[in-house]
Amino acid sequence: MSEKLPSPEENIDKIPEIDSELIKHIESLNLYPLEKGEIILVKAGVKPSAWITADIRIWNEGEPQHIIRTEKDVEDFISVIKELNVPSEILPREIEVEKQKIRGQTINVYRDHVEVRVASNQENLDTLHEAIKVKDHALMGHILGIPETAVEAFVGKSKKLNPYKIPKEIILSDAFIFSSTNVLSEDNWQNELKEGEIRAKTLEKVSPKIFEEMKRERLKSIESHGLLSDKTRSRWSKKDLS
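and the corresponding structure tokens:
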């Protein structure tokens, strides 16, 4: 396996200037760093679309509500989506009810959330809407900007790469950290990681703050999955994870 890191194929300097006030508004949102980054990547034209579901309240029947976001947080989120000046779809706020077995009893679990879809153009938004509607995972991956061969690996059309076989220095690279997918193909993973480096360089240029926030969050996830642990890598690198 080659350990050479991929290089971006696009000229990052061609990314259009984004209003600094809009960037500050995005940075201030009560969203996960990944979600804020996705919004910026769509606005920058690097990502064709994004699909964000923001939980507001979650609670079990008969128990106090867990407040995740305030009403002001929701208003700010919707305001920024409108401020982006790109095609978007803001779905009606919804409270989903799901039955779960907790401590031996089946109870209702409530989830209050708002769902937003944004895209770089109307055609991409329409495609995302259709992919979600018909639950076409391949089309969904494609329109969300995941490399085609990685999508094929995800849906079982080609062999997945065992991530525990990837050299540590590549796992710690921006190309891997900012990749849009956790599933890479065994035959084309290096080319797929070029997309991650383009995402990283875009975010570093447009919003160093979100770039650093996303990097910290992703590194925590990488460490929690044991991708940097010699013991875990030795155990799992020999397994077929396809």
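(Above: one complete record from the training split.) Confidence is low (pLDDT under 50) at residues 1-10.
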